[in-house]
Design brief:
35% of the residues lie in helices and 20% in strands. It contains 6 helices and 6 strands; from the N terminus they run αβαβαβαβααββ. InterPro entries: SAM-dependent_MTases_sf (IPR029063).
């Protein structure tokens, strides 16, 4: 909590924690630092809805360093992303454990690394090149991932590094696109 207050000295900070005893023990110290603590399970949709109502939503930054399990990460993202403001950022940490039995609560069906890869595929590839004419196995696999995990609305970019990714939301004046115009001197791809 101290790190975020130092990094974001003027921000309104909200923190969610599963351990209610810990929150009660440290509530006064957190409030003295201007940090509001919420309690609950990020995989419980009604809990996340309560967090949104209590905090007022309109998040500039969300940092998911929670359960480390694929299901709760995806649930939180699906519920909180609509409340990230234009130009906001959504960080997901500890993605390196998503395939391990202890953290893969989806039996491999929704590993967050795979979901993010499908979203990145859609951001990187020109839509005119995804015309269904894929002739090899790799292209068919990519198309299946794209069909299973369509990129969420208003994703401007996804940047990943070791064990973590950040998803950026488009600003009001920029429309999210997965296709880009050709640069000067560069012919557009044939249709």
């Amino acid at each position: 909590a101290k790190l975020w207050r130092l990094a974001l000295p003027n921000a309104e900070l909200w923190e969610a924690e599963t351990d209610a005893v810990c929150v009660r023990k440290h509530r006064e110290r957190l409030l003295a630092q201007g940090i509001h603590a919420l309690v609950g399970d990020q995989n419980n949709r009604s809990t996340v809805e309560h967090w949104i109502r209590k905090s007022g939503g309109h998040f500039s930054v969300v940092i998911d360093d929670g359960a480390h399990k694929n299901g709760p990460i995806l649930t939180s993202f699906q519920m909180l992303w609509p409340h990230v403001v234009p130009g906001g950022l959504y960080f997901i940490e500890d993605l390196h454990v998503g395939r391990k039995d202890r953290w893969d609560d989806t039996k491999g069906e929704a590993v967050m690394a795979d979901v993010l890869q499908a979203w990145m595929e859609q951001k990187m590839i020109f839509s005119s090149w995804r015309d269904g004419s894929a002739s090899n196995y790799a292209n068919r696999q990519a198309q299946q991932r794209v069909a299973k995990w369509p990129v969420p609305k208003n994703v401007a970019f996804i940047f990943c590094q070791n064990a973590a990714c950040v998803i950026g939301k488009t600003t009001n004046n920029i429309r999210a696109r997965s296709t880009f115009g050709a640069g000067k001197g560069c012919p557009a791809p044939e249709k």
